[in-house]
Amino acid sequence: MASIRCVDLCKTYRQGDAIIKALDHVTLEIDAGGFVCLSGPSGSGKTTLLNMVGGLDRLDSGEIAIDGQRVDLLGKGALADLRLHHIGFVFQAFNLIPVLSARENVEFVMQVQGVPTRVRRRKALDILREVGLAGMEDRRPAQLSGGQQQRVAVARAIVSQPKLVLADEPTANLDSVSATHLMELFRELNENHGVTFLISTHDERVMRHARRLIRMRDGKVIYDEVQVSC
Amino acid sequence: MSRDSGLSLPAMSRLSWRYLWRNHRRTVIMLLAITVGVWAMIFMTALMRGMVDKMIEDGIDALPGLVQIHHPAFRDDPNIENSLPAPGAELLEALASAPVAAWAPRVKVPAMISSERDTRGVTLLGVDPAREIELGFDPQSVVAGRFLEGADDQGLVVGRKMLERLETELGKRVVVMSQDPENEIADRGFRIVGVFEGKLPSQEEQWIYAGLGTTQKLLGMGGAVSEIAVTGGDFRDVGALHAHVRAAVGEGAEVLPWTELDTYLGLMLGVMDGFVLVWIIVIFLALSFGLVNTLMMAVFERIREIGLMQALGMRPAAILYQVLLESLMLLALGLLLGNLLAVATILPLRGGIDLSMVAEGFEMMGVSSTLYPALTRKDLVMANAVVIVLGFLTSLLPAWRASRYRPVEAIAKT
Predict the structure, then answer these.
(1) How confident is the model at residue B3, as a pLDDT?
(2) How do strand A4-15 and strand A18-30 relate by DSSP bridges?
(3) How many angstroms separate the Cα of A53 from the Cα of each of A21, A70, A194, B36?
(4) A49, A99, A154: best mutation site toward chain B, by most B Cβ within 10 Å?
(5) Are strands A61-66 and A69-70 parallel, antiparallel or unpaired?
(6) Which of the four, A121, B136, B261, B275, has the lowest number of CB atoms within 10 Å?
(7) Subunit contact A99:B15, Cβ cutoff 8 A
(8) Calpha distance B155→B140 (Å, rounded)
(9) Minimum-distance CB partner of A80 among B305, B310, B411
(10) Is the CB of B315 less than 8 angstroms away from the CB of A76?
(11) Cβ distance B1 to A112 under 8 Å?
């Protein structure tokens, strides 16, 4: 389980002559084992916040800590290690490695972690079966549909049981059945394995699964509430 | 692999191999370029090496021998006074053992040869014919009459051109005149028993062969000789033979390898080595532009995937290794094919390439009209090493660029 603490995060981007405030003094805390949705219109800062938490981008100012470890102070190598061992990413655009099969894509993170071949192969096949891709293990991404590719990406993100999963619009390219199935999988991991989820989404179905909903606009948190119905 | 690399070598190799063949056409074109480049490096080097080797071998035949023993003053003043005593027991023992393959004692003095019509300055060579043939004299080069039959043969063998200059014929008598150790004229008549054709025109005009014993008697030098020529092993590696002979001779005589006996020949070998390196590097430079371009394109078209790998926890160093490995695979494949092609084209030409169409020009340079390509391990290793080392260095730039992308920007690339 991973707790996230963000204090006074600021990030600006330059677009031509204009300066865009992607994050404008954002402060929030997410408890370990949380299932949190970030919602808001495009450009509200959801993806930027995910990138900052995952150490994919640098802050202008502020502090981010995961389980008390300051992410904003880590170097490239240490950030890579943090992502490798503690964070699972699910991107909006699937982002699979095209020259690897579905199984090899799922195995990739475990390979980098140094997990023995037999162990990682078994885990990869198990998780692919769990996400409904049994029999498609040897297909390359180009031979899979969008929904299937996203399920491979999800399998890759969760196979090594990270403490935290950061998912950027994970259902954006999925049909409603696949999206529902994916959210059920996320909830199962959250409830049974204590994995913390931080999901950016526009999708109302995803928001309904969240125990906590944070709305953002213009780089600011404008709404932050625990959803009792979940 | 270490924690820094992020992937085991087999896993990284598999990934690199697949990326290499992601764009088949580009990889095949680059592979062809490397193959042809490597073939050109090796094939042309073998031709040039064969030509220079032949020039050197002919030059060594003319010395003759890979190592020679002289009186220390003989090379400055090839006078009969600067002779060596007949080889002693220790030297004979050394000359009978490896790495010596053959040796020959020789008398070599300046002399005059006169026919009824003309007189010419020559070098009188007193030789033991059997040993001279072992050393490298080709009996087939005697185109008329016969070669000497023993150390005490009373006949004389002259060059074809000398015969023309003297306006004489096989079987006629000539007078050879030189100096004895007391600086008195020593002369005697010889019957011409053979005519030889030299590898170089100058040999036919300069050398006349007489029996060793006959020459020693003429010059009154007892068992003394002007030089002892020794051969054995590859001319490129004369060090061991030289050391072996020098150890047996000790002080009081000069023992020189062919590289010092004929510094021009020695220099030719050194220049050839340098030229081969320059030639290989020039071809590689032409190749390197294609290689860099190929790798740059391969990196640019997968910036997003590079960002993804970093986002998943692969360190920048691992990205660098992966691109380098991809380049090394391409180079290794090109080298393999280039080497095979070169060997396949050189081996059928081992019997020599007939250049008689332009032989006149070559002979002026002291080169035979038949060119034998020489494929040496050293040249092969050099060509392969240059391609791998410089290829690796050339690949560093695209690999380094790939490793420097920021994950968030790379992933956003479309």
Answers:
(1) 47
(2) antiparallel
(3) 17, 10, 18, 51
(4) A99
(5) antiparallel
(6) B275
(7) yes
(8) 18
(9) B310
(10) yes
(11) no
B 267-326 residues with CB < 8 A to A:
304-305, 308-316, 318
Determine the Cα–Cα distance for residues B411 and B310; give it in Å rounded to an integer. Answer: 9
**Distance linking the first and last C-alpha atoms of chain A:** 19
C-alpha B328/C-alpha B256 separation (Å) is 45
Cβ atoms A1, A29 nearer than 8 A: no
Q: Answer yes or no: do B313 and A112 touch at CB < 8 A.
A: yes
Inform me whether the C-beta atom of residue B408 falls under 8 Å from chain A C-beta atoms. Answer: yes
Secondary-structure breakdown of chain B: helix, strand, coil percentages, each rounded to the nearest 5:
55, 20, 25
Which chain B residue shows the shortest CA-CA distance from A84?
B313
pLDDT of residue B4: 43
Q: Do A80 and B316 touch (CB under 8 A)?
A: yes
- Between CA A61 and CA B349 the distance in angstroms is 73
Burial bucket for residue A90 (CB in 10 Å: 0-12, 13-18, 19+) = buried
Ranges of chain B whose pLDDT falls below 50 = 1-5
> How far apart are alpha carbons B65 and B316 in whole angstroms?
60
Which of A91, A95, A112 is the closest to B6 by Cβ?
A112
Across the interface, do B408 and A56 touch by the CB < 8 Å criterion? yes
pLDDT in tens, A51-88: 999 999 999 999 999 998 999 999 888 999 999 999 99
pTM confidence score:
0.73
Residues B56 and B235: beta-carbon distance below 8 Å: yes
How far apart (Å, rounded) are the C-alpha atoms in residues B312 and A106? 11
ipTM: 0.88
CA distance A200 to B240: 78
B243 min Cα distance to partner chain A (Å)? 56
User: Rounded distance, CA B81 to CA B58, Å?
Assistant: 29
CA B298 – CA A127 distance, rounded (Å): 32
- Residue numbers in A near B18 (CB within 8 A): 99-100
Give the Cα separation of A48 and A58 in Å (integer): 10
Chain B residue numbers with beta carbons less than 8 Å from the beta carbon of A54 are 311
- Tell me which residue in A80, A83, A99 faces B22 most closely, judged by beta carbons: A99
Q: Do B315 and A77 touch (CB under 8 A)?
A: yes
A87 vs B216: CA distance, rounded Å: 97
Place of tokens 């009824």: B116
Q: Are B215 and B105 in contact (CB under 8 A)?
A: no
Is the C-alpha dihedral spanning B51, B52, B56, B57 positive or negative?
A: negative
Least confident of A97-111, A155-169, B46-60, B145-159: B46-60
Tell me how far apart the alpha carbons of residues A56 and B307 are, in angstroms, rounded to a whole number: 9
* B171 beta partners: none
**Closest-CA residue to B187 (of B219, B224, B148):** B219
DSSP, res B86: P
**DSSP-based three-state secondary structure for A54:** coil
Residue B71 to residues B5, B179, B186, B224, B354, Cα–Cα distance (Å)? 66, 18, 22, 11, 42
Q: What is the DSSP pairing of strand A164-168 with strand A87-90?
A: parallel
pLDDT at A229 over 70: no
